[in-house]
């Protein structure tokens, strides 16, 4: 995706309507039943940063009656600055109340956490919520390091950076997460014995890595950590997500991701092909 031009559509957190104070907006978010809100999630037509939020909206529809729309901007509209954003990037989440008031949420981490809270995916108490968010953040930063270090680098550095990612970043990540999962009883969940934002995000980050040119190498590394891999297996069995994961729309996002990242990373080592 190209960079938005200097003149571009911007979303403001401030309303021109004096009746829509921050407390009024909070009241809409806190007091409106989930089934009465419309969630419009805007991201490019790839998996990547949009996967976890999409999963949660599908889950929210199945379990809480949430209504949602997935939208993807055209390359033309994005390049011409016609796609409204808060920080010149996607995803964005628009929440529409029954009275037509629209509230915008930006940045993938914040969108994910908001949806997780809305759909009861942050545990049963404050400490569980903080624990889940801590684990989620660590998983998220693994993916962000991929974006900033491994896939966005000069061609001659892609190989060495990939190797360093496997030898150091991913190795330590997997060691840490194996430890915490075993501490929770090695049941395929990070906290307690039920699905959480952390579980969903891990499964989606694994899926993201699988769409890279060296996806088989990444999958092998995760499979060698049985406690971590068990989380992915549990998410894959969530009944309300199975039809979504098998849908043409999901497969299109996956296909487009593979195509998008094909030129941004080195291929598999020959031994892994």
UniProtKB/TrEMBL annotation:
Segments forming domain GST C-terminal: 104-259
Pfam family, one: GST_C_3
Gene Ontology MF: a single term: glutathione transferase activity
Residue ranges constituting the GST N-terminal domain according to the UniProt record: 37-123
GO biological process terms held by the UniProt record: glutathione metabolic process
This protein's name: Glutathione S-transferase S1
Originating organism: Dissophora globulifera
